[in-house]
């Protein structure tokens, strides 16, 4: 087990550190205006990072998931919304090029779009009424109807980060008439930054944090997708996208939130070292209560980072599978809880003056608010980790809620 970054990975991290410094100068503006950080995406493209999630054989950077995790953590410290949104591009290109059932010709085409043509892609899985606590709620209800030369899509997707800035959307739809709710077809949908025929973007994203992700709802009304952009079909959506694709389906998000947690720790440390209370000669950093808070934050975040790196290393070394899913689900649970605790400690340690608008900590704490609830949320992650640790069969676990088909109407009379 070795978490040491190689030279290629280190160079990529340095590029991301420099980008993060630039992104930080505009993060407050995009947060205030909830505007898409288009210039940040362009700078990422100019830096050659559109192939960050792809292996060398497809023309990608070939830095593995460990290298990607280290990079996205750096970007998140500059502008969390940019990192969280761009993670959707990595999710799409990484998921597609690692998937065993997608034809090589299709993978090469997707790589060409991203790297040579500079096309930005996002991943869109959530739908209205999906729940980060209930995995089955993520099975797609967006419907795909077969027609000559392709498919017609009808339905909605929710929380579609960066969709207005993207050229293509990676999504799954349910084949019309199929009785299996987990039957799904993967598509790469040409969306042309929301201008494609049959595509309507509903501007509903006015959130507490992550405001610049522009994670709006997208409605597909007779949207045509040609056969050449059909990626693959599966009868087991949850196993296919979430279990086998754990690194991209939720591991990347975990790394983004860990980056925010690192940023919160660094801000708190610097803030306390500079702040001197009236009547005292030493900065408040010397107060034992504050030292302990920073010490606890540093210890927790270090443990979370090692958990993330372990999962990433496991993914790069052993590939997809239940064991890799287990490592990522533990990392996700750890990071969600650690970042939430860091927010609490930082506010107590730094006080009210650190929460004024325009102070980076205020924005970082709001951006970090969804760390425990980003799918799978910490309760769902802990539940899955418990099942796997004890070797229990998930199929034998009692469902937490009754399904629609289980509800029986009361007898009358």
TrEMBL record:
InterPro entries: Acyl-CoA_DH_C (IPR013107), Acyl-CoA_Oxase/DH_mid-dom (IPR006091), Acyl-CoA_Oxase/DH_mid-dom_sf (IPR046373), AcylCo_DH-like_C (IPR036250), AcylCoA_DH/ox_N (IPR013786), AcylCoA_DH/ox_N_sf (IPR037069), AcylCoA_DH/oxidase_NM_dom_sf (IPR009100)
Subcellular location: Cytoplasm
Keyword Metal-binding applies: no
Any one Pfam family match given in the protein's UniProt record, by short name: Acyl-CoA_dh_2
EC number: 1.14.14.21
Family designation: Belongs to the DszC flavin monooxygenase family.
Name this protein carries in UniProt: Dibenzothiophene monooxygenase
Species of the source: Siminovitchia sediminis
């Amino acid at each position: 087990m070795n978490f040491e970054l190689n030279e290629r990975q280190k160079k990529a991290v340095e590029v991301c550190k420099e980008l993060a410094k630039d992104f930080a100068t505009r993060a407050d503006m995009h947060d205030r205006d909830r505007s898409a950080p288009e210039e940040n995406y362009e700078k990422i493209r100019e830096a050659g990072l559109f192939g960050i999630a792809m292996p060398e054989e497809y023309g990608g950077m070939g830095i593995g998931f460990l290298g990607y995790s280290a990079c996205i953590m750096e970007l998140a410290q500059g502008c969390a919304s940019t990192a969280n949104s761009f993670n959707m591009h990595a999710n799409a290109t990484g998921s597609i090029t690692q998937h065993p059932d997608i034809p090589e010709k299709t993978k090469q085409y997707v790589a060409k779009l991203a790297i040579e043509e500079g096309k930005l892609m996002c991943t869109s899985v959530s739908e209205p009424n999906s729940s980060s606590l209930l995995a089955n709620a993520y099975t797609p209800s967006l419907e795909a109807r077969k027609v000559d030369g392709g498919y017609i899509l009808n339905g909605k997707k929710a929380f579609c980060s960066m969709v207005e800035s993207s050229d293509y959307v990676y999504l799954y739809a349910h084949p019309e008439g199929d009785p299996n709710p987990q039957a799904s077809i993967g598509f790469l949908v040409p969306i042309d930054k929301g201008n494609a025929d049959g595509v309507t973007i509903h501007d509903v994203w006015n959130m507490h944090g992550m405001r610049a992700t522009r994670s709006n709802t997208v409605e597909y009304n007779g949207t045509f997708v040609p056969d050449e952009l059909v990626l693959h079909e599966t009868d087991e959506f949850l196993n296919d996208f979430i279990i086998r694709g754990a690194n991209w389906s939720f591991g990347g998000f975990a790394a983004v939130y860990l980056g925010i947690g690192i940023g919160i720790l660094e801000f708190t440390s610097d803030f306390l070292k500079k702040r001197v209370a009236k009547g005292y000669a030493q900065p408040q950093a010397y107060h034992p209560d504050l030292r302990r808070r920073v010490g606890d934050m540093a210890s927790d975040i270090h443990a979370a980072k090692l958990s993330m790196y372990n999962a990433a290393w496991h993914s790069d070394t052993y590939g997809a599978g239940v064991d890799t899913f287990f490592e990522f689900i533990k990392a996700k649970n750890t990071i969600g809880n650690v970042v939430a605790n860091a927010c609490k400690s930082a506010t107590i340690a730094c006080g009210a003056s650190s929460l004024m608008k325009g102070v980076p900590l205020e924005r970082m704490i709001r951006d970090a608010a969804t760390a425990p609830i980003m799918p799978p949320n910490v309760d769902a992650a802990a539940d899955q980790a418990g099942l796997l640790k004890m070797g229990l069969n998930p199929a034998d676990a009692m469902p937490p809620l009754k399904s629609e088909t289980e509800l029986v109407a009361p007898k009358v009379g």
